[in-house]
Design a protein that fits this description.
Blueprint lengths: L3 E12 L6 E12 L3 E5 L6 H8 L7 E6 L2 E2 L5 H11 E4 L11 H11 L4 H14 L15 H13 L5 E5 L7 H16 L4 E5 L11 E6 L2 E7 L14
Bound molecules: adenosine-5'-triphosphate.
Length: about 240
C-alpha cells in the first residue's frame, strides 16, 4: 500500500490575537504521497499558501498534527524544524528568491553549502541539476540575464539540491507565459513520476490543472472537494480520500 510522506490531521490555523483573530484553516485532513503531483486550488484568500507553509513545516499550525514520514513535528524547535526542512523539502516560491549577485551555479551551490558539501562537489552537483532543468547553457548567467522561465528553473534546481523527497511550489506558473508554464509543469511531472518525489503545487492557473494527479479545492479555509485523477486509480473519487 502507498505510504504518505506527510499526513496533516485536523489542522486549524488562526492569525492574530484577541480582536484581530482570524481563522484561515479549519479541520484540514490531507495526505501527501510520493510519485504524485498534488494541486491545492481555490479562490484568493482561501488558505492555500498558509496550508502549503504548514505542510512544509515553515509555519506551525495553531492546532492539529503534521506527521512527516512517521514523525510528528509539533514539539520541534525552530532549529530542528530548519534542519528537517533542509532534509525533506525543496521550495520554489513565486518570486524565485534568487541572489542577484550570484550566478545560476552559485545560487544552487548556496543550498549545497548549507548541507556541508565541499566546493568542488557542490559545483559539479549544481551543474548536474542545472542541466537536468534544461539550463546547461546558462550555468554562469546571473538572474538579471535570465528570462522568467529560466529563473524559475534555477529556483527548481536549487530546490532539488538537497535531493528532497518533497517539492513544494507556490504559484509556479503565475509569472510565465503559456508555453513556458507548460514546460515547467512537464518538469514538475517528471520530478514526481520519474524521480519519485511528492510535488505539491498551489495554483490559480486552470491551464495547469490537467497536470495534477490529485486536486484539493479549498474555500474559506476548508477542503470542499478532492478529486483523484491518477491514471492507476480505480475511479474518479470526489469528497472522500485524504
Ligand atoms: N501572516 C499573516 N497574518 C495575518 N493574516 C494572514 C497572514 N497570512 C495570510 N493571512 C490571511 O489568511 C488568509 C489566507 O491567506 P493565504 O495566503 O493562505 O490564501 P491563498 O488562498 O493562498 O490566497 P492567494 O491565492 O490570494 O495567494 C487571507 O485572508 C490572508 O489575508
Amino acid at each position: 500500500m502507498k505510504q504518505p510522506v506527510v499526513i496533516a490531521s485536523n489542522i486549524t490555523h488562526t492569525f492574530g490575537s484577541s480582536t484581530t483573530r482570524f481563522t484561515v484553516l479549519r479541520e484540514i485532513d490531507l495526505k501527501i504521497y510520493t510519485n504524485e503531483v498534488l494541486m491545492l486550488v481555490g479562490p484568493s484568500g482561501s488558505g492555500k499558501t498558509t496550508l502549503l507553509n504548514i505542510l512544509g513545516c515553515l509555519l506551525k499550525p495553531t492546532a492539529g498534527i503534521i506527521d512527516l514520514r512517521g514523525k510528528t513535528t509539533q514539539s520541534l524547535n525552530e532549529e530542528q524544524l530548519a534542519s528537517l526542512r533542509l532534509q525533506h523539502f525543496g521550495f520554489v516560491f513565486q518570486a524565485y528568491n534568487l541572489f542577484p549577485v550570484l550566478t545560476a551555479t552559485e545560487n544552487v551551490m548556496v543550498t549545497l553549502d548549507l548541507l556541508g558539501v565541499k566546493r568542488r562537489a557542490a559545483q559539479e552537483r549544481a551543474h548536474e541539476l542545472l542541466k537536468l532543468v534544461g539550463l546547461g547553457h546558462r550555468l554562469d548567467s546571473y538572474p538579471a540575464q535570465l528570462s522568467s522561465g529560466q529563473k524559475q528553473r534555477v529556483a527548481i534546481a536549487r530546490a532539488l539540491a538537497s535531493d528532497p523527497p518533497i517539492l513544494m511550489a507556490d504559484e509556479p506558473t503565475a509569472a510565465l507565459d503559456a508555453e513556458t508554464g507548460l514546460k515547467a509543469m512537464e518538469l514538475f511531472c517528471m520530478l514526481a513520476h520519474h524521480q519519485h518525489r511528492a510535488v505539491v503545487i498551489v495554483t490559480h492557473d486552470p491551464r495547469i490543472f490537467p497536470f495534477a494527479d490529485r486536486v484539493v479545492h479549498l474555500e474559506d479555509g476548508r477542503i470542499v472537494e478532492r478529486s483523484s485523477i491518477l491514471p492507476d486509480s480505480q475511479s474518479l473519487t470526489m469528497g472522500h480520500s485524504s
